[in-house]
Write the structure tokens for this entry.
Amino acid sequence: MSADAGVNAPAPAETDGHVMGKDGMAALVDVLIGRGFTVVGPTARDGAIVLAELRSAAELPYGWGVELEAGRYRLRERSDGAAFANAAGPQSWKSFLHPSRVRQWSADRVEGRLVFTADETAPPRYAFLGVRPCDLRAIAIQDRVLTGGAHRDPVYGGRRSGALLIVVECTEPGATCFCVSMGTGPAAGPGYDLVMTEVVDNGGHRFWIRSGSREGAEILAELPTRPADPETRAAAREGVAAAADHMGRTMPEASLRELMAGTLDAPRWDDVAGRCLTCGNCTMVCPTCFCTTTEDVTDLTGDHAERWRLWDSCFDLDFSRLHGGPVRASARSRYRQWMTHKLGTWYDQFGSSGCVGCGRCIVWCPVGIDITEEAAALQDWAAGTGSPEGAREPDLPDGDGLK
């Protein structure tokens, strides 16, 4: 475990919990819809496990798993019919809490004057079914970033305030997962309303389910369950423990914050810059990246205009543009900014790492750049066991010497 990981604190759940079968999962979705929630969960679609609105539990990806590697993602069929034995897909819950496009206001020319109207559309009340422990931590990080300071994001706050979080603990990590290194899984930390662990063995297909909030307990009371038996609890705990021992990746056992601060001039940044396409995929799939920009649009008559907030990326050349041009003009400087912020200076802003070990940035990088491999290479260089080349002098005109 990385020295930055901290303790994966136990969740405030029932000690014993309950057991429900596959029929209970169907009842859970029906109860949530009956309570007025928009239920969002994983489903197999377009060759991936994606997050979408669910009308019934039959839409869950029963019998589907995934094969992951750097720059590679494939669905594969499973023989056990498990619904949640698959690692993180291309989306995170950020897509619903911090949407990629939000209209902020519109303006209309009415009788020679402009009338501005704020977009105050009420968000749906979400129930997120199948939140992974790493993504539970990511939501907690976004809570701190977007609502924990003096300048709260009303869009995020409105969507987050009514959201119900139903976590499924991880029993089958992917080849690019490293949540153990970051202290975010595979067991669930605090902050959920309900938590489940899926078990498929000779005893059947079932879920060990516990509540973590008053509303979670109320929902649990409406489901067809029975008291948890020792065999199911043991099988669930063994599955989670086995997942912790089978992470596909790991971060260096060092203070990542100190490592990032001490390797700003390492020649490894030139190596990664030679491979990085600066496409921004890593920031789009990351469950904690939060940067935005604004875009103004108008119709052809000029009588109607709108302002939209859009996701932005520090890999965009214009992201750091000032009056004299971009501060970070090179791929080297932009990749370094992303990684050192995510693993290092995020602490200075928000008191924690910005990485939860989900591995999405590795999977969805077109050229398979691996953040754990890059961190390990930087550690080797810092220890004097890496490249024999000396430190690269900061290239101030190109922005590499600026933070």
The longest helix spans residues 331-350. The first strand starts at residue 18 and ends at 21.
